[in-house]
Amino acid sequence: TLSITKPEDKKIAYILFDPENRIVKRETFEQPVKVLKAKAMKAPYMIARYDAVKKLRGKASTAKLEALRAIYTAADHHLVRQEVLKQLTQYPAEKVIPLLRKGLTADHHEVRRVVLKQLDDIPRPLIPLYEKSLKDSSFRNIELALRQLVEHQPRNLGTYLTTTKGIKGLDNHNVRLTWLERAAAYKSQSYTEQLVLYASGN
């Protein structure tokens, strides 16, 4: 049992045990959204802030959405922002478009990737940013954007294939293979033949 004494004129914003997460442990006490929000924004170490955001996963309230918005704005580490975005993508897109837009334009490629990977559909206001992602610095992000755009905006297939033509991607040629898959599905037999050559290692 842990007892905490506080000065009468002070309020406890949050409780932080083992701020650097050096002890193998399991915290079992319930923490409301308000407390987790304060910890996620003010705890001195990133790992504690990240842990507080993860604990928001099991919460369901309007206060949680407002907390996630505030935490994302205050966050200075990409892991915290990634976790916030993972949870935001569970909400109806129209409620979180501004933050999804921020995610797609974030400096860190893994933050941008969360939006590209987690959303099942492309909200119309975000289509231009998905199209911009076809020129992302991350080959994995280019692959994800190409898959989503061809699925949800097939009428623009030609434009998307032109934009990404000649990009091989990672060592496994992920972008090129995705390009050929999409081209084979919507265009000519010759692309299927090229896919077969890739699969055979020739």
Description:
The N and C termini lie far apart (66 Å). The chain has 202 residues and is an all-alpha fold. It is 59% helix and 0% strand. It has helices at residues 33-42, 46-55, 62-74, 78-88, 93-104, 109-118, 127-132, 139-152, 157-164, 174-186, 189-200. The chain is built from eleven helices and no strands.
In short:
The protein is mainly alpha-helical and 202 residues long. It has helices spanning 33-42, 46-55, 62-74, 78-88, 93-104, 109-118, 127-132, 139-152, 157-164, 174-186, 189-200.
List the helices and strands and how they pair.
Layout: H1 33-42, H2 46-55, H3 62-74, H4 78-88, H5 93-104, H6 109-118, H7 127-132, H8 139-152, H9 157-164, H10 174-186, H11 189-200
Helix pairs in contact: 1-2, 1-3, 2-4, 3-4, 4-5, 4-6, 6-8, 8-9, 8-10, 10-11
* Average predicted confidence as pLDDT: 88
Helicity, as a percent range:
55-70%
Low-confidence stretches: none
Strand content: under 5%
Q: What's the Cα radius of gyration?
A: 22 Å
Distance N to C terminus? 66 Å
Structural class: mainly alpha
Number of helices: 11
Number of strands: 0
Please give the largest β-sheet. none
Q: What general outline do the C-alpha atoms trace?
A: elongated
SSE string, helices as H and strands as E: HHHHHHHHHHH
Name the descriptors.
202 residues, elongated, mainly alpha
